[in-house]
Amino acid sequence: ANSPDRERTHRAIALVILLVGVVGLGAAAALGFRELGGWLFARNPRFTIRSGGLDLQSTGRLQAAHLRDYAGLAEGLNLFAVDLQAIRKRLLSVPLIKSVQVERVLPDQLRVRVSERVAVARLTGPNGFQFVVDRDGVVLGPSNRGPALPMLEGVHEPGLAPGTQIRAGSFQDALEAVEYCETAGHSRYFRLARLRVDHEEMLDARLSSGGRILLGRGNLRWRLDRLAQIVQEAARRGEVVESADLTVDSNFPITYARR
Questions:
Q1: Of the ranges 138-147, 171-180, 237-246, which one carries the lowest mean pLDDT score?
Q2: What is the CA radius of gyration of the chain?
Q3: What pLDDT, in 10s, does the model give residues 11-56?
Q4: Over the stretch 168-185, which tens digit does the pLDDT of each residue have?
Q5: For position 29, what pLDDT does the model report?
């Protein structure tokens, strides 16, 4: 009477044994492939990074020795045992580094290309220590180029340190103003020497000539274009702009002084 039950039980046991066998064979095959891969690649001396096989270059002041130390690289490592993502992550943790490309060049070379951040302005931290920042608002640290860069004032950012990114809208607008004056060629006519960034609706700028300029944050590039025209027209008359209110959209209040 129990024969059908026993038969079903035997079939179930056989199915379990079959499944266990398939899984075991799969695991063994995967392990075998990993071992084969290790033998062919990660433990193959043909892919050992040769002497001089670390091709490390940066767009800025970082030297190959710096990149080697930051990335934890050395000649003699196996090219396929090196974790490219880990190298990239370690390099990107350096505040000065903006982007990284890492690639294997078979059979025995590792190529690293680093793009560095470029200082465009400076600011003073809570302790009076001066930092420089790049276009993205990332604090880079001190720089001997600092005195030639515009000073951004009124920054109230706790814990400023290299690697900090300042995202405040007015601060980012000030960086845009600095960058745009360079790319649009306005630096031929005036230079932004100082900008206060602690006002919600405007930037309070000082030109290198001493003039005070109030810039509305809306349509900022258009206002800078207008400022360039105003400065040029004043220069043709032998005058300099002493003050200008460009927070309005027309009939800008402007005062001039003789050169």
A1: 138-147
A2: 31
A3: 666 666 666 556 655 554 444 545 444 445 677 888 899 999 999 9
A4: 999 999 999 999 999 999
A5: 47
Q: Under 8 Å CB-to-CB from 207, ≥6 apart: which residues?
A: 190, 191, 192, 193, 213, 241
Q: Which residues contact 168 (CB under 8 A, 6 or more apart)?
A: 157, 197
pLDDT in tens, 197-212: 999 999 999 999 999 9
